[in-house]
Design goal:
Layout (H helix, E strand, L loop, with lengths): L9 E4 L2 E4 L5 E3 L2 H21 L8 E6 L8 H7 L3 E2 L8 E5 L15 E2 L8 H12 L13 E6 L8 E4 L8 E5 L9 E10 L2 E2 L2 E7 L10 E5 L1 H4 L2 H14 L3 E8 L6 E7 L11 H23 L7
Helix pairs in contact: 2-6, 3-5
């Protein structure tokens, strides 16, 4: 288990903060400071609300890392009345939590292990599984593709996407995907961030930003939406099937809706996602956290309920 001294997760190099575990580099600027202050306001609300909740639910052992408060799972666990176990022998369930794109899969897993079998969330694996469950190819061969395409790192959290026109020589560590037109009438692009619990959706974050910032890690606007107003029953079934194929028990999906065809495309998976999005109003951040907490608690309780077999 990692130390609870959170500041040791980071290393300051001039005006850049580097995340020790993943190597991600975050430039220190006014926007980062503003977002940090906004997050602190949300965290304070979570702290106040969790003190009014009776934390007597099942205990979860997180391995190999304990989630920090800025990961979405942390506030959700608090508002679900669940407890984080200090030792594995004290836990009712085990949550495999590691902020890396590829990990060594657990040797054995059961219904009491969360995300144990979800070992690869690289862009190529996401594209492979999406094609498997949808019949539509997201990945392209850059050496034969003659239209626009997106080139981006296989690693999660890189936000280094760029648009190229093929054919091009492939680079190592880069995934190549078809360009999905997710633009709105006002020229902004719209991403659908979908936190999932056992493949089910209880909230959707509509993230909007200018077309020029298509691949940026900041948003000009975020709205909280009801999944039933965003996805059809068939699309929600596709998302459930995708999560099962990825062995994703908890995690966030990035879904794009093609402006021309209306089809949805799952382009990214993050099983250690942060959130809720900073640009979302605080009231909606709390609403989303409560809904996810309700969904997670129901899923945990179901995992711990013995299945009756007929004699």
């Amino acid at each position: 288990m990692t130390t609870t001294a959170w500041w040791r997760d980071f290393q300051l190099e001039g005006n850049v903060v580097q995340v020790r575990k993943t190597g991600a580099r975050i430039p220190l600027d006014f926007g980062i400071v503003t977002e940090t202050l906004s997050w602190m306001g949300y965290h304070a609300r979570i702290e106040l609300e969790r003190r009014r909740i009776r934390a007597d639910g099942p205990r979860i052992w997180f391995t190999p890392d304990r989630p920090r408060p800025w990961y979405l799972i942390w506030p959700v666990v608090q508002l679900a009345g669940l407890r984080i176990a200090d030792q594995p022998e004290d836990a009712d369930l085990q949550f495999h939590f590691e902020d890396l794109t590829t990990v060594t899969p657990a040797r054995e897993s059961s219904s009491l292990d969360i995300n144990a079998a979800c070992a690869d969330t690289s862009k190529s694996e996401v594209a492979r599984v999406f094609e498997q469950v949808s019949g539509r190819a997201l990945a392209v061969d850059p050496q034969t593709w003659t239209a626009e395409m997106v080139a981006k790192s296989e690693l999660n959290g890189a936000h280094d996407g760029r648009i190229l026109t093929g054919p091009v020589r492939p680079e190592p560590g880069i995934a190549y995907q078809r360009l999905i037109d997710n633009s709105a009438d006002d020229g902004c692009v719209e991403d659908l961030r979908c936190p999932t619990v056992n493949g089910e959706l209880s909230v959707v974050f509509l993230k909007r930003r200018p077309l020029s910032d298509r691949f940026a890690n900041h948003n000009s606007e975020v709205r909280l939406l009801d999944p039933d107003t965003v996805f059809s029953a068939e699309e929600r079934a596709l998302i459930r099937t995708f999560c099962r194929a990825m062995a994703l028990d908890w995690g966030g999906l990035d879904v794009l809706r093609d402006r021309r065809t209306g089809e949805i495309w799952i382009v990214d998976v993050n099983k250690t996602d942060m959130g809720p999005p900073i640009a979302l109003p605080l009231k909606d951040q709390m609403t989303a956290t409560r809904k996810l907490a309700h969904a997670l608690r129901a899923n945990v309780d179901a995992r711990l309920t013995p299945v009756e077999t007929s004699s």
